Amino acid sequence: MPLSEGFDELFVEFAQELRAAGLVIGSDDVITFCRAVGVLDISDIMDVYWGGRTTLVRRRDNIPLYNEIFQRFFFNNFPEEESEIKKKFRAQVSTTATVEIPENERQEDGEPGDESKMGFMAASHEIFRNKSFNECTPEELAALRKMMATIRLNPPIRRTRRIQSTNKGKNLNMRRYVRENMRQMGESREIYYMKRKEKLRPVVFILDISGSMADYSRNLLQLAYSARRANQKVEVFAFGTRLTRVTRSLSNRNPDQAMELAGSEVMDWEGGTRIGDAIMTFLKKWGRGRMGRGAIVVICSDGLDRGEPATLAKSMEALSRIAYRVVWMNPHKGNSEKYVPTSMGMIIADPFIDEVVSGHNLKSLEEFSRKLVSIR
User: Fold this and answer.
1) Residue 291's closest CA among 315, 324, 267, 259?
2) How does pLDDT run across 195-231, given as a tens digit for each residue?
3) In terms of domains, do 257 and 214 share one?
4) Domain range for residue 164?
5) Most exposed among 286, 310, 355, 368, judged by the fewest C-beta atoms under 10 Å?
6) Do 328 and 301 form a contact (C-beta atoms < 8 A)?
7) For residue 140, which of 150, 129, 149, 151 has the smallest C-alpha distance?
8) Strand partners, 325
9) What percent of the chain has pLDDT over 90?
10) Four-CA torsion 288, 345, 238, 125, nearest 10 degrees
11) Which CATH number does the domain housing residue 252 bear?
12) How many angstroms separate the CA atoms of 39 and 141, rounded?
């Protein structure tokens, strides 16, 4: 964030705190620190931490003192003592922000974890994880998307029919054993095993971006972006009244640019919903090839469909035949353990769904990411 926003005064105050604590800091060091932070992202507290550490700390012995002052200055919460500029800074930074200190820099007399991680109150983190997306403010949603970027949503592993040799296992590789035995004139002392090769199972996200999903669609798109960044076996589609493939847009390394590209590529944001037509389009163009056959298909929608019921039933039946698993992520499920579909689209699709999961808050997305990897 540029210095014109006024945070340079806050960073100068921080440098003065360090100087008062005994660190040798010149005016040129303070100017360098302000310039460094000016070209970084202050909404990421790690940028501020390392910007100050690389410009204001000259000796390794001063690092523990720097960590202590940094934690007290930026993280200690005393609202009655905070200046307006510090409150403004806190509003820009995720309220769940943490700074992780390398293991070899902990103080010897400190309690475990005291120096390895500093941050805001953990209670606020739990509030964020359990708060529904449709109840969050724009600032809270921005913070949640930063947290969501840390989710590692890896595709599960599938066993193929191909065989590979291995040094250990349960099944003997008799063909190789006989071949090696004959080559060594019956004196082979090695025992060879074999196992089936493993590959990543494809995962397909089909995201509902209609008006009824406006409170959730961008967060689910962020989840799909994290999954795509984790592995190239992930495909992403968005639909309202028509289906659009956004996989290439979400392959961008910059998350903001990826979201912007995907948004410009989809032309029917917050419009109507035709789930059956979207799934049928996927099956005709992509589903019957390597992308859809044997894949885990995750449909993210509330089931409020304006299309023909017969089309939805036909497309879901065809999808269930070629997909390995059909998972429906419905934010309206919430925390309910005994979810009963109420919308017409969910009632029609229910016989062809393997599992219904929620996606209404960060905690449910984290649980889904752990569950997805374990599918065999």
Assistant:
1) 324
2) 888 888 889 999 999 988 988 988 888 888 888 887 7
3) yes
4) 158-200
5) 310
6) yes
7) 129
8) 296
9) 24
10) -120
11) 3.40.50.410
12) 24
